[in-house]
Structure formats: structure tokens, C-alpha cells
Amino acid sequence: MLFSDVAGQDDIKKYLKHSVAEDNISHGYIFEGPNSIGKLELALVFAQSILCDKFDNEPCNNCNACIKINSSNHPDIHILDFKDKTIKKESVDEIIESIYIRPYESKKKVYIVNNSQNMTLQAANTFLKTLEEPPKDTVIILLTTNSNLLIPTVVSRCQLIKFKNVSKNEIIKKLIDKYNINEQKAKIISDYSKGILNKAIRIVEGKNEILRERDEIIKIVNNVLNSSQDIIYEYENYFEEKKDNIDDVLEIIMIWMRDLSFTKEGLVKLVVNKDYLELLEEQSRKISLEDIANMVQYVQNVSLDVKNHVNYKLVIDKMLTEIQNCKI
Ligand SMILES: [Zn+2]
User: Fold this and answer.
1) Rounded distance, CA 179 to CA 186, Å?
2) CA–CA distance from 205 to each of 58, 111, 252 (Å)?
3) How much distance in Å is there from the Cα of 227 to the middle of ligand 1?
4) Ligand 1 centroid vs 62 CA: distance in angstroms?
5) Can you give the residue ranges of every domain in the chain?
6) How are beta strands 77-81 and 159-162 bridged, if at all?
7) Strand pairing partners for 37?
């Protein structure tokens, strides 16, 4: 991998590259930022750069270390992931014991701990001990969504690096360059991924189904607007199945409502669902701006109601009825 394979985070890349070039690597780093923002990818490129024999602004991708890392097969890079808390105590022990053994092949060994906020206390304490009396050859990179959830003494011994959301333009560029999709589609995907590059990539690769879901919801809203009240009951099962990710559904409806008001006001360039312009224009002729504003407010309240355990079926039925009543 290369630093340039990871979108955005230019300041962080510059800092990490400089540290490698100057051979000024700390014993501990904390990469803090939301899920799927590229913390793991950047940690891996950084680790590769530390171990690479011919680092020059980027890892060479040719030396023995690079080749092994690229095939996830380097004995001096250890990755621990506390994602689902099912990580075995033995595997934690094994890795922790290896901290005090010299690197096998390289000058240094690198530990990358993903979701470190879920670390067991035993693991956290061992890493703390290592950070207090660091063996010269060890680098620990803790990845976390929130550094406040880590032991403060660990945080104080690490370089804290905060990741920012990647700009939409950077995501669009990356999608067009890497996946050869057209600009309109790249823009829609970047809007639905909210600055999280990995989410955008999962959408392009079909591993995240939000765009398919979007097509379904837009169809439902259109049917509700153009039919009698009975149709609302036909969608009860659909929404029941969506109960666990209702926030995604509500967000799609909100974006649609916002698009309707942009279309109505002639601000087409602000529309997210540009591939549905014709339908937006048709619907926007039937709905007043005031109704749209009320709907946005209503959908926001649905999200709160669901969190507060108000009867789910009732809340959804009422929301669809409100959408239906929007017609002029
Ligand atoms: Zn190399």
C-alpha cells in the first residue's frame, strides 16, 4: 500500500512521513476518528513505512518487508481487533508476550490495536507497562473512535492524532479515479457516505446497500403520494424489517424532502438525488414548501420517538399518512 492510496488526511500523512524520514518514531500513537474513516489503512501504511528498507516519501512496495506486509504475512506486524469483544484471552496473551521478544526480521515491530476502546483491562495494562518502559524496538498504534474511553495514563504516553472527515470532493475524485464511475454517481455516493471514504467504497463495491434502499424508499414515497390510504398498510412489513436501521431510512426520506424543496425553489444544483430529477420535479409540483418543511420536522421527531420506544408501527403509519396528506 501507499500513503496516496488513502484519501484525505493530508496533514496526518505529512506528519507520519516526516517521522519516518527523520527516523523519529514514537513508541505510542493513538489514531482517533469515526469508524471506517481510514485509521486502519493509514496505520498499516505507516507500519509498512517504518519497516520498509527503501522508504522514500512512500514505502517502496518492492523490498522483502513491503512484499510480506502487502500479503499480510509479516511476523513483526501484529494486529489485534477488539471489535466484537470475542477476542480470545490466549491470543491477547500471545501477542503481549511477544512485546518482550526482539523483532524477527526488522529493526522494529509494530502493534496495531483496532477498536482499542474495547480492550480488556489486562491488555490495556500490559500496553501501558510497555509505554512506560518502552522497549526501543516497539511501536504501538491504538485505533479508537473516542480517546476519552482509553485509560488516561495510556493517552498521555502516546501521540494523539485526530482524523477529520474527508471532503466530498476528495471522495468524488477517488471514486472516479479508482472505480471509473461517472461524476453524477460519484457525487451521489459521496453525499450518502458523509465524508467516510470506506463507506463510499463499500457502496461502490455493493457491500453497503444504501443506494438500493434509497430506490425502494423513493418508490414507496411516490406510491404513498399517489394512492389511497390503504397502501400505507401494505408497507407495514417493509418498515418492520427496517426497524433496526430505521435511522438510515429516515435519512433517505429527509434527503428526498430536502431535494423536493430545492427543486421547488429552482436550486437544482443542491439536489442530492440528481438521477431522480424528473420525479422530483413531478412531485414538487404537487407539494407546498410549507408541507415539505413540516415533513422534515416530522421525520426528525420520528427518529426521537423510535428511540423513546413510542409504538413503532403507529409512528411509521402516522409518518406515511403525513406524507400522503402533503398533496396540494
Ligand atoms: Zn519497502
Assistant:
1) 9
2) 27, 29, 20
3) 63
4) 5
5) 3-162, 166-206, 209-324
6) unpaired
7) none
> Is residue 153 a contact partner of residue 178, using CB atoms and an 8 Å limit?
no
Residue 193 CA to ligand 1 centre (angstroms): 33
Give the fold, CATH level 3, of 3-162. Answer: Rossmann fold (3.40.50)
Which residues, other chains included, contact 262 with Cβ-Cβ below 8 Å and sequence gap of 6+?
268, 270, 271
What is the distance in A from the centroid of ligand 1 to the CA of 52? 4
Helices and strands in the chain: count of H runs, count of E runs: 16, 5
114: cell is: 483496532
pLDDT at 26 over 90: yes
Q: Ligand 1 centroid vs 60 CA: distance in angstroms?
A: 4
140 C-alpha to ligand 1 centroid (Å): 20
| pLDDT range class, residue 15, cuts 50, 70, 90 | very high
**What is the CATH T-level fold of the domain 209-324, as seen in this structure?**
Zinc Finger, Delta Prime; domain 3 (1.20.272)
The pLDDT tens digits for 95-121 are 777 888 888 888 899 999 999 888 877
| Torsion angle defined by CA atoms of residues 129, 148, 122 and 160, in that order, rounded to the nearest 10 degrees | -40
CA distance linking residue 16 with residue 317, whole number of Å: 52
Measured distance CA(220)–CA(128) in Å, rounded:
53
Other C-beta atoms lying within 10 Å of the C-beta of residue 304: 10
Q: How far is the CA of 66 from the centre of ligand 1 (A)?
A: 4
Q: What is the pLDDT of residues 118-134, one digit of tens each?
A: 887 777 887 888 888 87
